[in-house]
Amino acid sequence: MENVPTPAEELAILDRELRQLDARRTQLLARRSWLLAALRPPVTASAPPPFPPSGSWPAGPRPHAEASPPSVQNVLLTLGGILLAVAAIAFTLVSWGHMGIGGRAAVLGAVTLAALGTPAVLLRRGLVSTAESVGVLGLVLMVLDAYAVHRVALAGTDGLAYAAGVSAVLAGLWSAYGLALPRLRAPLPTALVTAQLPLPLWALAGGPAAPPMEWALLLTAAADVAVALWGRPAVVRGFAWVTASVTGGLAMLTGLWLSVAAGSPGEAAGPAVLLLAASAVALFAAWRSPAAAPGASVVAGLAAVAAVGGLIRTAVPQGWAVVGYLLCATALLAVVRTSLPDRVRQGLARSAGAVQAAAAVTALPAVLISLAGPATRITEIWSTAPAGTREALSLDVPLSVLPAAPLVLAVLAATAALVARRLPADDSASQAATDHATAGAPPSAAAGRGSALGTLLRPAAACGSLALFWAALLVLPVVLDVPYGIAVGWQLVLAVALFALGAVRTAPLAHTALACGLAGSVSVALLSLATRPATFVVLGVLPAALVAAAFRPRGPGQQVAACAATVFATGLAGACAAAAGLPPHRAALVLLLVPAAAALAGARLGRHSVALPVEATAAGAGLVAVLLATGHVPTLALVLALCGVIAAGTAVRAERRPAAGYVAAVLFVLATWVRLFASEVASPEAYTLPVTVPALVIGALRRRRDPQASSWTSYGPGLAATLVPSLFAAWGDEHWLRPLLLGVAALAVTLAGARLRLQALLVLGGAVLALDALHELAPYVVQVVDALPRWLPPAVAGLLLLAVGATYEQRLRDARRLRESLGRMR
Fold this sequence. Notes:
Largest sheet: none
Low-confidence stretches: 43-77, 426-452
Oligomer: single chain
């Protein structure tokens, strides 16, 4: 059967129909786009765009534009300007020598004038971007003109001097050009940047009339400040502030370097004048510009201090230069009371504060040496009496860091005290508000902020003044290198005075005094270890002074003082033991006097706030006593028993009974075990059972009277007194009778605990039973393990871990149920 029509004719028909469908689809898409545009809200009153003719748009949506017309225009104009500038440079450098003088002048003049004049025409037609590009080309051509003139007519002149003059002329011409065509943005900033070059280039060129480089930079910065204050438009003022900061900063750094390097007042006079001039410029800028005032006023203050302090530095001995700078900064604080604008006064005060902080840092090494230096002699206790304070510190102290430290700290302390006195206090602020209300006028926001700031800063300034004054007095013995005894007495009196001040003042000044006193007391305690009499005097006075300071109105400082007194009392007890030549385990008995005295004081104080901190600190002394007695087991048992007696005496008080009762029971049991171990008792049950039986009877009577009593307090001490020593004896016993009897007893205790639901019996009995069984099975387990292949134990352990991991959630629930069951027991 043949196809009608033929395959070739049918293919042609299909192609024609497909072309018709494509054309119809294109028309429908175009119509759809036109309808969408017509349905959008009209932006202007103009009619919708006309329907495009058929076939003018391609099929499918139009591609999205990746660049806007203005950006494309700017790129094209920039590229065009760059190409023209490159062509002009190539012409000037390469083709200049092939033309006569007339042709040269005609070409450069015509091209430059055309480039500079064309922007005016373009601006009238609204082509701002094009005018900007052509204008930049004109500026480049002016630079090429200046270069060409130097090559042809002024080739013999100095290059730096010519560049300085040309940069000044170009800056002026470009400024005039930018003012004539204000719509062009490039000429005025370019003129401002070019104006930074004439004076520095002139200074580099040298010559009899050329200024020094630092003065050239400063004069340029002054001109920039003038432009920043009065220039137009705003973009020029922003550029001017930046250039003024750069050139002025370079001038000040140069002046500061010259001032520091000066060796005589005559050499320092020039940099001082420069820095004072820079300070005047910065101060003028801060006065006239509120935006620049915060930074400019700080710069002005720092420059003034550097100028005058540099002169003083060259006139005083080495090591005292910091005093000159500090005095200048302190004098600068007087401007706070003047009629300068607030923004200027605040900046000058900040600069003075920065200098004072730097001065305080220079005095910090002397303070650290005075405080931490005595720790270097901790290994030479009671060896020999040092001749002077510096010998007692065992430090090679550089003299350059010492002489001025007391004076620096004293000046800082006086300044802080003056600031604290001048700032408004809470009552003054309240009185000011009352006065305003009486007068019928609301208080101003500035007054409110000032009073709030004074309320915050006044205590801080007072505390800082006290700390600085204490530091100044602390470093005096080191600076003067007074005899050792005088240094110890001075620091001891200083610490006691601070404790007394902390006792009579209120927070936060009292806390500052206490903190300084504690730091000084630790230092003088370490310093006193050089000789035996000094040690006893210091460790005898400090606890008494701290106890006296602790019995003041309650507060955190009171508790800290009481704890510190306990620590120093512990040190005094240890010193007494060392002076008596007692071995460490005997000295431990002497140290127990501290927790005993603390327990008696706690009973006397009752619920006073210092009672618990003192007892906790004294417990640390008891722990030290236990550690000292570990070298002699019989004494260790005695120390543990005495600690138990002290804890039991503390447990008599109702507020300490729960915690102290447990501690006393544990200490007594430990003392019993240690005593048995020290006596090498082979059958501890003969000594423990007479204690266990009455203890269990007493526990049962207590449980009958108080069913809510814990089984640990009722039966725990009695059971542990026998079970634990017997367990240790069973682990070292080679026979079978003791482990069997211990296992039976532990099983009975465990069953009784499960039956009566008593936690102590269940846990103690079960633990002892498990350990006893492990001791009996251990030899057989070792034999089995030795007989098995080496790979089998790791394999079993791996399978066990896999099984536990697979049933982890179930094991976790079982453990939680076991914990809850034990928790419900008594």
